[in-house]
Amino acid sequence: MTQRKTQSPWSPLRNTLFRNLWIASIVSNLGTWMHDVGAGWLMTSLSSSPSMVALVEAADSLPVMLLAMPAGALADIVDRRRLLIGVQIYFLFVISALAMLTWLELTTPWALLGFTFAVAVGTALAMPAWAAVIPELVPRDDLQSAVALNSIAINVSRAIGPAIAGVLVAAVGAWLVFALNALSCIGILVVLYGWWRERRKSSLPAERFVSAIRVGMRFVTHTRALQGVLIRGIGFFLFASATWSLFPLIVRGVLLTCIGVGAVAGAMVLPRVRTKVSRDALVAGASALYALAALALAHVQNLALLMVAMLATGAAWISILSALQVSAQLTLPEWVRARGLAAFIVVFMGGMGLGSVLWGQVATAIGIPSALTAAAAGMVAAVALTWRFKLGHHQMPDFTPSMAWAPPVLAENPEPDRGPVMVTIEYRVDPAKRAEFVAAMQEVGEMRRRNGAYYWELYHESANPAQFVETFMDESWIEHLRQHERVSVADREIQRRAKQYLIAGYEVKSKHWLADRES
User: Fold this and answer.
1) Which one has a higher pLDDT value, 261 or 340?
2) pLDDT tens-digit profile of 170-206?
3) N or C, where is the chain less crowded by C-beta within 10 Å?
C-alpha cells in the first residue's frame, strides 16, 4: 500500500467555518446531554410508571428511525444551510416552551413525551444535513479527521453534560437545563447565518419530495460499496450496543470519563494509523479491541484494568464510527449524499436501539457478564462473516459531472412530467468478447439504476447474438434529464469498460421513447 502523508488530527480546525461550527456543536451537544438527563429526571418525578419512563427513550429515538430517509431527501432538495438554520430556530422555540412550562410547573407526563418527540423530529431532520455538509467544509484529505473531531465533540459532551445536569437539576430544577439547551442553539445559528454557501448550479428544477425518496432508495439498493458499509455497520452496532445499553448498570464516575479520554486519544492517533492500514483492517482490529474491552468489563474487578478497558472502548468506538462514516461519504456523489448518509443513520440508530432492547433482555435472562461475553463473541464472529464486504481504500471515485451524454434529439419539447421515458441503446459486439461485454454491462445497469432508472435490461437479437439492445426507463422526462446531469467521470469509465468490447469503429445508437396515453 502506498504511504500517504500523515494529516494532523487537528488540521480541519484550520478552517475557520469548520472550527466555529465545531465549537458551537460542542456547546449544543452539552445542552442536548443535559436535556436528556433533565427529561429523564422530570419523568421519574412526574410518574412512577416504568412504562412512561421507557416511553421517553422511545419518543427520543423513534422519529430518527422513521424520518431519516425523508429528511435525507429534503436535505438533498433544499439548501442544507437554510434547512439547518430552520431546524435550530425550531429547536429554540420548542425547547424554550418546554422550559417555560416546566418552570411554571405545568408539564405533565404526556406533555413531556410530546415535547421529547417534537425535539427528536428536529434531530431527525438535522442529522442527514449535518453529515452531508462536512465534505463542503474541509478538503478531502481532512475528511477522516473532521469526522473524528465531530465524534470527539459528542463524546466530550457525553462525559461532561450529564454531570453538569445532575448538579443543576438537584440545585434548581429541570427547567434550567431545558433553558440552557435552548440557548445552546444560538451559537450554531450565528455560525450558520454567516456561512455563504455556494450551491451547484442546475438548469433543472429541484426534485420532488416523494420521487427523491424513491430515487434515494434506488441509489442505496444499487450501490454495492455503500451496501458494504451498511452491512459492516450492522455487524458492529448490533453487538456494540450491548456495552452502551448496560453501561448505566455497571459503569460509574471515572470509568465513564475514561471512555471520553479514550475517544480523544483514538482520534489523535487515527490519522497516523490510517496511513499504515486500510479501513477494513482498522475496523476489524478496532472491533477485536472493543470485544476484548467488553470481556474485561464482564469479568475483571480491578479498577485500574477496567480503566484501561474503558480507554480501549473509547478509542475503538471512535475509530470504527469514523471509518464507517468516511467510507459511506466516499461512496456518495453530492446530489444524493444526504440520502445515502440517512441510510447509514438508520443502520446506526436501528442497530443501537434494537440491540439495546435485545441485550437488555439477554442480560435479564442470563446475567450481565454472560450477556457481555456473548456480545463480544458475536462481534468477533461478525467481523469474519462480513469481511468480504470491503470498505474501499484511500482513493475516492471521481463524482465530477462528466456531461458525457449528448442532449436528446427532439422533434417536440415534452412536458417535464411526461413519462415514463424509455431509452434504447444499440450495441454491436465482437463475437469473441460477448461474455465479457455482458459482464461489463451489469455494471452499466447498476449505474443506470443508482442514477435514477427504475428498470434496466439487456437483450440480444435471436438471429444475431452479437447484436445487443440496452433498455432502461425513467419515471418522467425531467427525471431522465437529471440522469444526464448525474453521470460522473466514474460512470463514464464504467461505460468505457463495456464499450471496449464493441466491433472496432462501431458507434452506439440511442433512441428516446415517450409514453403515449389517451387524453
Assistant:
1) 340
2) 999 999 999 999 999 999 999 999 998 777 667 788 8
3) C
Q: So what's the pLDDT on residue 44?
A: 84
* 279 and 364 Cβ atoms separated by less than 8 Å: no
Give the amino acid at 3. Q
User: Which of 180, 176, 179 lies closest to 97, judged by CA?
Assistant: 179
272 three-class SS: helix
Coil, helix or strand at residue 510? strand
Confidence label for 159 from pLDDT (cuts 50, 70 and 90): confident
Provide the pairing of β-strand 509-514 with 455-461: unpaired
Amino acid of residue 178: F
CA-CA distance, 438 to 498, in Å (whole number)?
8
**CA-based nearest residue to 449, from 230, 276, 222:** 222
Instruction: Tell me the C-alpha to C-alpha distance, in Å, between residue 454 and each of 246, 422, 479.
Output: 44, 10, 11
Cell 411526461, residue located: 418
CA distances from 49 to 44, 114, 169, 361, 370 (A): 8, 17, 21, 19, 29
Q: How many CB atoms lie within 10 A of CB 54?
A: 11
Taking a C-beta distance cutoff of 8 angstroms, is the pair 480, 423 a contact?
yes
Please give the pLDDT value at position 2.
45
Indicate yes or no: pTM above 0.85. Answer: yes
Residue indicated by cell numbers 444526504? 338
DSSP H helices in 367-418? 368-386
pLDDT tens-digit map of 28-74: 999 998 998 898 889 888 887 767 776 777 788 888 888 999 999 99
Q: Are 153 and 73 in contact (CB under 8 A)?
A: no
Q: Which residue has the cell 465524534?
A: 151
Q: Are 339 and 72 in contact (CB under 8 A)?
A: yes
